[in-house]
Specification:
Blueprint (H helix, E strand, L loop, with lengths): L8 H5 L2 H7 L2 H7 L3 H18 L1 H13 L2 H5 L6 H8 L3 H13 L3 E3 L5 E3 L1 H8 L3 H14 L3 H6 L5 H5 L12 H25 L7 E5 L5 H9 L4 E6 L4 H10 L6 E5 L13 E5 L7 H14 L5 E6 L10 H13 L7 H11 L2 E10 L3 E7 L9
Parallel strand pairs: 3-4, 3-6, 4-5, 6-7
Antiparallel strand pairs: 1-2, 7-9, 8-9
């Protein structure tokens, strides 16, 4: 039987005749002679080429970031013959890079041949953690160099080596590896925290436990917004020093209890009336997710809430950001997968949660949120 997000055999066959017709070269030659057909052909051709050159566009952005050109151009426009020598790049090649950046809308070309920063280019610098993620994508793109090998699982990926905790390697992870992971996540987590807390109210929550909370970015944002709230941060022991330092800098250490542990090996602490899983589930396979949801249910009191926030598949309506970028990103990690809100809700229901609400989203490429509740009284199956 087909799943909720997968069309059945009969639905898959619908429209096949049209695809086969459009795929005939002779039909394409005929279509472009028609007024409306020419417009469609141009549009389809442009969109196909945009997909084709997408990797090159991403690498142009990576070069601008790696060379520090976005920051440099904050001070004003510069010509290629100035920027080239400063970065060890021949002026003609620097001109090609800057021209490409302008074509992508990241830079502006002036009449005198100098290039300045556009609004979109400046926005990249204003998004916390974005330049770090662009640099980090070097490993991801290396894994995508042979997408068929990735899909077949034929080789160890760089991403799996970068994220050893996903494969359950908790006891022997060097502190510097845990810190590297948490630092990267912390820089990108602020937007996730802001969007999540716009979508979900914590006014009735007195104690929030963030599982897999890293440096405590989400928890800190929640505590700043709700002065009566107290928090618990549960994550690997190697992450705790970073979290303690971050929460101390934020002046929130006295409101947070640090609980080192692995949700694979340890029961979650009790006492929180809400538990958050922010960008956690999509790191793991269904077996691990089922076990984690069961542990969360057991840790919550009757009526306690679970908040899940992460990029989610569009399911029956494929989403360009989550079903392309995040789907393959989690695949290259080794065990991760992007799930639809419907699939996550089904896993929550299977674990025993009720009152599942959502999905809520402002920017699906940042996060989507689901909220569920532990049943009251004897209805809970633990």
């Amino acid at each position: 039987m087909a799943s909720a997000d997968q069309p059945g055999p009969r639905r898959r066959r619908r429209g096949g005749w049209l695809a086969r017709l459009v795929a005939r070269p002779g039909v394409q030659d005929w279509v472009v002679r028609l007024p409306f057909g020419a417009r469609l052909a141009r549009r389809d051709g442009a969109e196909i080429f945009d997909i084709l050159q997408g990797f090159v566009s991403a690498q142009v952005l990576a070069a601008l970031v790696e060379l520090g050109l976005l920051e440099r151009l904050l001070g004003g426009a510069e010509p290629p013959d100035v920027l080239g020598p400063e970065t060890g790049i021949a002026p003609d090649r620097m001109a090609a890079l800057l021209q490409a950046g302008a074509a992508l809308g990241l830079l502006r070309r002036r009449r005198d041949g100098a290039y300045g920063l556009s609004r979109k280019g400046a926005a990249i610098l204003g998004v916390p953690g974005l330049t770090g993620m662009i640099r980090h994508n070097r490993a991801f793109y290396a894994d995508m160099a042979d997408p068929v090998a990735l899909l077949r699982g034929e080789a160890e990926t760089q991403m799996a080596r970068f994220w050893p905790y996903v494969l359950g390697q908790t006891g022997d992870i060097p502190p510097e590896v845990s810190a590297r992971y948490s630092d990267l996540m912390a820089r990108s987590q602020r937007l996730v925290a802001q969007d999540t807390l716009r979508l979900v109210s914590l006014k009735a929550v007195t104690r929030l436990m963030d599982v897999g909370g890293g440096a405590g970015v989400f928890l800190a944002e929640a505590l700043r917004r709700h002065r009566g709230l107290r928090g618990v941060l549960f994550d690997l022991p190697g992450v705790m020093p970073l979290a303690e330092a971050e929460l101390t800098r934020a002046g929130l250490a006295d409101r947070v209890a640090l609980a080192p542990g692995s949700f694979r090996e340890n029961a979650l602490p009790r006492g929180a009336d809400a538990i958050s899983l922010v960008r956690v589930l999509y790191d793991h396979d269904d077996t691990t997710v089922r076990a984690l949801l069961a542990s969360v249910l057991e840790a919550l009191p009757p009526g306690g809430r679970l908040i899940i926030s992460e990029p989610m598949s569009g399911g029956a309506r494929p989403d360009r950001a989550t079903d392309v970028y995040f789907s393959f990103y989690t695949m290259s990690m080794g065990t991760g997968r992007v799930r639809s809100a419907r699939r996550i809700a089904a896993l929550c229901k299977e674990a025993g949660f009720v009152g599942i609400e959502g999905p809520y989203t402002a920017r699906p490429f940042i996060t989507t949120v689901l909220v569920a509740r532990r049943p009251d009284g004897d209805r809970c199956k633990v």
